[in-house]
């Protein structure tokens, strides 16, 4: 059995009765077995998913109705809690941890009869851009196993790209949904900060973290957002704004749109030349179609990644203080008579990987006495400048167009020797997180090196509807641009 | 700026991480690069700019102060690496 193009097509077959949820789950399990080498999943819930599928099939038989995500097969990044299932953050620290509750997003997927097939690999505690920092080993790029799938939600992107699940959840603190989606040639949406509850998402940097959605079909991504977005009594930062319909209207010739791109972003020396020229061609095409696409100036491009790393490592150093080996998680064995302090140190040194420790130390540094104002306060001030500039631009324009990442996927090991080399690539994605804006990466291009790459769209706060509509328009013309 | 061994030792102590002689050299190099990277912030004039701290418009929403129990004690203790009856158990609290 081949996989369906989207939920709508799948649901039509479910209602006619020529396919069952059980058959679909079995088909995905077969594909997962065939793609085991990708190491996309950390834990697979095969029996349970089949059991749930059979129960849903029986209900459909009886009631002849479908919920919004009935039988839709999801994978979830292993930083998102699913009650009574493992939750590892791809870390030795939590390798045997099981969550006692579900994330609000997961709870809402389950209420709409989605089926969760397994937990997906990622960089440890979502810190990384390649899914190489995992206690469970790296995930490989689905199109070429010598390359990384991106990160930190690399397992989610690889799984959706290789049709190992229909949709997946990830988390995006500085690009961790959009960048792997870009590398793997699929859609990756990071909604506005606060659009989806963070309850049950393992905290990395709380003023940046946002759950995101991976898919191949824009309407499926919109449906998933409608299901999981909205206020939540367990997360006071979840916005009380009502959830609207995010379904993009299919209009091949929409009225003229007002779009912009940052001149500095396209002229940046790190951007691959071929990618740049593809994006310029797209801009020309849009103008020919009667849309306005203006070049705008943005003066902070080279300082947004530094500001991002100051603030996120500071927040991470505080958030990860809870992993002390006392109440849950890994505890190192200590010699008889060793003190509690020794136990903390040994537990944290053995439980965390290299990149996590580097970021905790940098965060400790920027928050420590004598350096706090020079780095932490300074970065918060830069954050305000960036956010106000972004709001100003997006008050005038519907969306900003930009690359998602300066290059296509890189080789395994290529960026592991120098952390800063890895951080520099984040310049296009951290912008949306610093300002709390919704952004999406859509698969529009293929490089002459054979790898796909996307275009990033960024919209104003809570403008997901316009963001998805613009994305749908570009995707529907994809091959002709 | 120059990163000294003393600074690394102090950061490790604050973050409750072991200071490992073998790892110190490469850690020093990494931190040096990371700090040089964030020093780029000094190029921005931020005179008079209010720090941006909260990304939400709805600060401190209130709710009824009602008692509830979401996590029974026994279930919480199941995850503990070590326990003693209904308590988490840890090594003695004393300086090394």
From TrEMBL, chain A:
Belongs to the amidase family. GatA subfamily. The gene is gatA. Coiled coil: none annotated. GO terms for molecular function: ATP binding; glutaminyl-tRNA synthase (glutamine-hydrolyzing) activity; transferase activity. This is Glutamyl-tRNA(Gln) amidotransferase subunit A. PANTHER family: GLUTAMYL-TRNA(GLN) AMIDOTRANSFERASE SUBUNIT A, MITOCHONDRIAL, TRANSAMIDASE. One of its GO terms (cellular component) is glutamyl-tRNA(Gln) amidotransferase complex. It comes from the Bacteria. Keywords: ATP-binding, Ligase, Nucleotide-binding, Protein biosynthesis, Transferase. SUPFAM superfamilies: Amidase signature (AS) enzymes (SSF75304). The lineage of its organism: Bacteria, Pseudomonadati, Bacteroidota, Chitinophagia, Chitinophagales. Heterotrimer of A, B and C subunits. Residues 24-468 form the Amidase domain. The keyword Cell membrane does not apply. It catalyses: L-glutamyl-tRNA(Gln) + L-glutamine + ATP + H2O = L-glutaminyl-tRNA(Gln) + L-glutamate + ADP + phosphate + H(+).
From TrEMBL, chain B:
InterPro entries: Asp/Glu-ADT_sf_sub_c, GatC. Its EC number is 6.3.5.-. GO terms for biological process: glutaminyl-tRNAGln biosynthesis via transamidation; regulation of translational fidelity; translation. It catalyses: L-aspartyl-tRNA(Asn) + L-glutamine + ATP + H2O = L-asparaginyl-tRNA(Asn) + L-glutamate + ADP + phosphate + 2 H(+); L-glutamyl-tRNA(Gln) + L-glutamine + ATP + H2O = L-glutaminyl-tRNA(Gln) + L-glutamate + ADP + phosphate + H(+). Keywords: ATP-binding, Ligase, Nucleotide-binding, Protein biosynthesis, Transferase. The keyword ATP-binding applies. Gene3D superfamilies: Glu-tRNAGln amidotransferase C subunit, N-terminal domain. One of its GO terms (molecular function) is ATP binding. Allows the formation of correctly charged Asn-tRNA(Asn) or Gln-tRNA(Gln) through the transamidation of misacylated Asp-tRNA(Asn) or Glu-tRNA(Gln) in organisms which lack either or both of asparaginyl-tRNA or glutaminyl-tRNA synthetases. The reaction takes place in the presence of glutamine and ATP through an activated phospho-Asp-tRNA(Asn) or phospho-Glu-tRNA(Gln). HAMAP family: GatC. Belongs to the GatC family. Heterotrimer of A, B and C subunits. This is Aspartyl/glutamyl-tRNA(Asn/Gln) amidotransferase subunit C. It comes from Thermoflavifilum thermophilum. The lineage of its organism: Bacteria, Pseudomonadati, Bacteroidota, Chitinophagia, Chitinophagales.
